[in-house]
Amino acid sequence: MIAIPTDQTILSIETSCDETSAAVLSGGELRSVVISSQHFHDEFGGIVPELASRAHMRSILPIVEEAMTKAACKPTDISAVAVTHAPGLMGSLLVGLNFAKGFALSLNVPLVGVHHIEAHIFSVMLEQEHPKLPFIALIVSGGHTLVVQVNDIGKYEVLGNTLDDAAGEAFDKVGKMLGLGYPAGPVIDKLAKNGNPDFVQFPRPMLHDPSYDFSFSGIKTSVLYYLRDHPDAASDNLTDIAASFQRAVVDVLVGKTLRAASDMEISDIIAVGGVSANSELRSRFAELSTQKHFRFFSPRPLFSTDNAAMIAMLGALKLARGSFSPLTLRAEARVPLADILS
Ligand SMILES: Nc1ncnc2c1ncn2[C@@H]1O[C@H](COP(=O)(O)OP(=O)(O)OP(=O)(O)O)[C@@H](O)[C@H]1O
Ligand SMILES: [Mg+2]
Fold first, then answer.
1. What is the CATH architecture of 9-122+304-339?
2. Would the CB of 119 count as within 6 Å of ligand 1?
3. Which class does domain 133-298 fall in?
4. pLDDT value at residue 25
5. Helices 49-70 and 90-107 meet at what angle, rounded to 10?
6. Cα separations in angstroms, 131 against 116, 211, 245, 269, 305
7. pLDDT exceeds 70 at position 341
8. How do the domains of the chain map onto residue ranges?
């Protein structure tokens, strides 16, 4: 059982990628969260790091002010500042981290450095119903696809990882082939609702492999070949291609996560990260969990993608355990979850 501390007011900041976000968590409750997404990357088909960090610099102060105003929070109410320091785009991380350091220093309150992927795991604690430890986490986002056994805060066993693309990357690359803009995950999700998922049988890579690892580049290449061999399909059968691709990805993600939970004899499963907002992924997990007597948890879609509410939650949990960071804390572009020291 993880208890949420009720005696702190945490201001949190998230700038690891292309969302500038701030939140206030007070008395164990989320008081505000503000998320500003940088939609101008759409026209480049992916994130341009230099433009991302400049946009964070422009928006960080108004976003923090808005979060504090919405929460009716004064600077003197704040008991700690939590911030994402890894992993992510270096220029983006530095904007949030330096702002957080300045804020913490000026208020003379602790700074709590938070690992972005670890925060995705604890995004489930923002909801009413919580999983019990140990649980199995499917972390599925733009940069990660991991199956992890979570034994406690800071105690993770990585059971499976992607050998090539992350699932979100596959959604985005297939979306690009279909001319859907960036990020394509939410658009594919919407189109798939009106398509036939059995229209094309795309491969389910590694579904029956005994490991818990994933591979998504094969599905992506299959879509590429299909579109090359059927040049009219992207216009005539757009919803069917979207549904068939999504079905293949969901089959693998759900199949392998449930197998891990079953093998480890763990009853509680969570799905977090941007791709966990996918409606088919959620409904399949919910349906199979009921059938097979697992309990399934996922945050509301707003907290699946990048947000500062999850940073505040993990910040609060870490602070309650006496874990805070020196003002010399560095931004780091890559820190595998398995390397987090508890
Ligand atoms: N409904 C959806 N269905 C499928 N994919 C989705 C959906 N909503 C968002 N995504 C995908 O989620 C990804 C973004 O997730 P998130 O914001 O957690 O990733 P990130 O921060 O870029 O990566 P990471 O968390 O690994 O650093 C994108 O690839 C996007 O296409
Ligand atoms: Mg993320």
1. 2-Layer Sandwich (3.30)
2. no
3. alpha beta
4. 98
5. 30
6. 20, 24, 30, 7, 20
7. no
8. 9-122+304-339, 133-298
